[in-house]
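S1.2 Input.
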Amino acid sequence: MTLTSLSNLSSATPLETLSLAELSELQTALSMLGYPVGDIDGMVGPRTRTAWAEFKTDLFRGNPDMVGPQSIVALQTKLSVFDTSTYDFSTTNGTVAAIKAGCTQHGIGLPGQIAYVLATVEWETAKTFKPVKEAFWLGEDWRKLHLKYYPYYGRGYVQLTWKNNYETYGKLLNVDLVNKPDDALVPQSALFVLCHGFKTGTFTGRKIADYLNATHNDFVSARRCINGTDHAADIASLAQRYLST
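S1.3 Output.
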């Protein structure tokens, strides 16, 4: 993501005086980094204020009510880690390497966290390590008939579902996922959704760090980040294997 509007700031500016375009860009950038801004609507609300204050506390100390050229440079630098242009998704090994790098970029780079993300992808994609459609062994006619959120059914390395989530990730990725939901199957996009969703709790409200962190690895309960307790023990076993190799 390139900060085109915010890069034009020439001096420190109060957060509430930013333009709609500048605020929307700021919200998008913060959300990409995992800061909970709420809706990307170009309005200054308590979540946006808190997210910006957290960013400045974490990465660029300064007045949390101000946005200036130096803080925008710091924000752009942080965003640059999401460059996936060198990743090779054509092979399983390449995809595994990309997932490991993606996890690290998103700040979920502990060995247990990476192991669990890899185990989840192996399970969800039937060991193909390729983005898949929900119930991929069935046809589109079946999905249209049986899935109430059609056409916004699951797609990706994990299942991105419901229109609001397609809207949210479409804004973050600058891709029209609402009108072209199959673009969620593009490996670069699917990787972002996978890692960002695990970090922020997009899928179920549960974050991977809730179960896998510096003090413990609860591979069984970590399934709650994706799908309750469905096949939790199976995926936990896969994660333990990844952690041991």
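S1.4 Remarks. The chain has a mean pLDDT of 93.
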